[in-house]
Amino acid sequence: MHQIRCKAYAKINLTLDVTGKRADGYHDLKTVMHTVSLCDDIHIIKTDKEIRLKTNLGFLPCDRRNIAYRAAEVFLQKTGISCGFNININKRIPVAAGLAGGSADCAAVLRALNAMHGNPLSVYELKELAGNLGSDIPFCIEGGCALAEGRGELLTRLPSLPKTFFVLVKPNIYVPTPWVYKNLHLDKITEHPDTAGCIQALKDGDIRGVAVRMYNVLESVTAEKYAVINKIKTKLINLGALGSIMSGSGSTVFGMFDSEKTAKCACAYFKKFGREVFTVYSNEYPQTV
Ligand code: C5P
User: Does the reported pTM lie above 0.85?
Assistant: First the structure.
């Protein structure tokens, strides 16, 4: 196979708890992640030598600073294959938004290159490579719905949501992930998500049961500094969302809806104000390669 096309899907965090600080500087997490239908498109062509990466966003790095580039590099190192690739990424997932856009691209490149070469690496090995490149990437290798623990790499598969709609609203602020974790004071967190309850609700296919348990402890950092986070949450609830929280380390806020029509109306409201906003649905097992 000399070329391959695939999709890289965004994720949201239905719950996000931080249970401790680790000796390696990272934090121990307990988070329920779910893939959604918003995706980037990736086209890879095999060449004789060199990895070349292009995206439709001029401000993104196209060299080793881009983890999709690193994905190709580590794939070649691990398999001993000698060739190059032209990788073209058409981005739709907002960048640095808590939606794992970069992680999804990285995971999709690993999967696609593996498929292109007749799957020399197992899914376990792909996840191992992924874990070295970033905390969210092992989840993105398989997608669907999972509980992620440890740094994010210890995954337990969970039943996906029945088709559920989400409105993703990206405020016009840039919130770097390391800043969020650095400013998180574990001793000051008084509330934690009911992760076990959320998992049970997923097992019962109970959308409302999931919605009322959606909770993200990282909001204690971001909402404190940026009032816009709570403003969007309140508005989404007023527009009919069953629940609303921030995704990952932000800054995207999402609302969960059981009706596509209500979700689209909420989306139209935010569009009027020029917000970066998307209506998406929960994706069950989205991998295309
Ligand atoms: O692993 P990744 O590159 O996605 O992490 C970005 C930053 O987020 C890390 O440098 C760290 O500051 C923070 N982080 C953390 N604990 C995690 C995941 C991320 O402290 N489990």
Answer: yes
